[in-house]
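Troubleshooting entry. The earlier prediction with heme C gave an output that would not parse, so I re-checked the input for stray whitespace and re-submitted. Clean input:
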Amino acid sequence: MANIFPRWSNLLPFQIAFCLGAVGAGVVLAFGYYATPKAQVVGYQPSQPIPFSHNIHVDQLGLDCRYCHSFVDVSGHSNVPSGNTCWNCHQHVQKESPKLAPLHRSMDKQYPGYDGKPIEWVRVHKAPDYVYFDHSAHVNRGISCQSCHGDVNKMEVVYQAEPHSMGWCLECHRAPENHLRPLEEVFNFNYGDGDVSKYSTEKGVTTTLDLGKKLKEKFSVHPKASCATCHH
Ligand code: HEC
Ligand code: HEC
Ligand code: HEC
Ligand code: HEC
Ligand code: HEC
């Protein structure tokens, strides 16, 4: 095809893309400001098809988060368990509980209303599509679920405990020492109450913050704050 545009116009698509990007960001900003969806708000606590209690299953029965959220330390996405995970136990315990009717409908072929469909949990935390987030990148570097989801181990019904806004992400990216833990403490929801001196023989390491600073240095943890880190 004949080159009907002068050479400089090769840059045009980039200039257009840049302008559209700027407009897009403006629209997104406005949207973020005026129409923040309910799911982004601290305290958001939808009711669930089964009144599943983390307090019973984690604090009282002692189950590890990874028993159910089995991908959280190996993948970007943290899964919610399928009915099979519940059925492992509930085909034997609390069989007559009316609260478990939806589980029987999904898993129990003998149940009169059996339909085999997955349980439709209502999602609580949802980052906008234009945000890139990765669970394992945090969990495997010493950031606990507790820093981002609050005291889930005590929740009867899960709610959003932290804002999950851009400012909130950046606050930790700029000072991760406030949250860093030894890897073996990432799933321990009583970490803050414990004695941290066992993790360091050095003098002056007595608080979780002292230890956080040491861990940051030792494992050179440097979360990035550039736009492309979270907006691909
Ligand atoms: C016995 C299985 C089980 C265990 C153990 C468990 N969870 Fe859950 N979790 C669920 C189920 C089912 C849901 C979805 C229903 C709900 O929100 O209550 C859920 C939901 C969540 C959510 C909200 C997901 C969303 O929609 O945004 C978070 C956060 C969470 N769990 C964190 C944890 C943490 C942290 C631990 C360990 C302290 C843990 N869970 C242990 C089964 C479990
Ligand atoms: C490791 C075994 C185990 C697993 C896995 C498990 N549960 Fe349970 N669940 C129990 C036990 C034991 C109790 C009874 C606790 C009590 O009464 O103190 C219970 C209690 C409950 C109750 C309260 C029942 C009532 O009538 O009070 C509900 C609802 C429930 N579980 C739902 C679930 C769901 C949904 C899942 C899957 C996401 C699940 N459980 C996974 C062992 C388990
Ligand atoms: C650095 C902060 C951070 C940490 C640490 C963290 N989460 Fe999350 N979690 C989030 C964000 C942000 C979302 C929303 C992600 C999205 O929409 O893609 C989320 C979503 C979830 C969901 C819902 C996923 C879905 O598709 O329904 C579950 C379940 C969950 N987290 C469990 C956990 C567990 C369990 C841990 C600890 C092992 C953990 N998270 C650690 C920030 C975090
Ligand atoms: C409580 C602290 C904390 C919070 C909150 C937090 N981060 Fe991070 N983030 C980290 C640390 C620590 C790393 C790992 C840095 C390293 O490996 O040097 C990290 C790494 C990342 C990475 C790089 C992952 C990779 O693949 O290399 C992304 C992307 C990211 N965070 C996005 C987010 C987003 C989006 C949010 C908010 C929804 C968020 N983070 C909130 C501490 C945090
Ligand atoms: C550590 C992760 C992270 C980094 C780095 C980051 N952002 Fe964000 N950004 C987010 C998250 C999370 C949201 C969604 C906030 C919400 O849903 O309330 C967001 C939202 C936005 C929005 C939508 C408006 C708003 O505030 O809700 C714009 C525009 C934006 N970011 C631009 C940028 C630019 C420009 C940079 C670089 C200077 C940047 N971001 C760096 C995580 C990040």
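This one parsed fine. Residues 55 and 161 are 15 Å apart (CA to CA).
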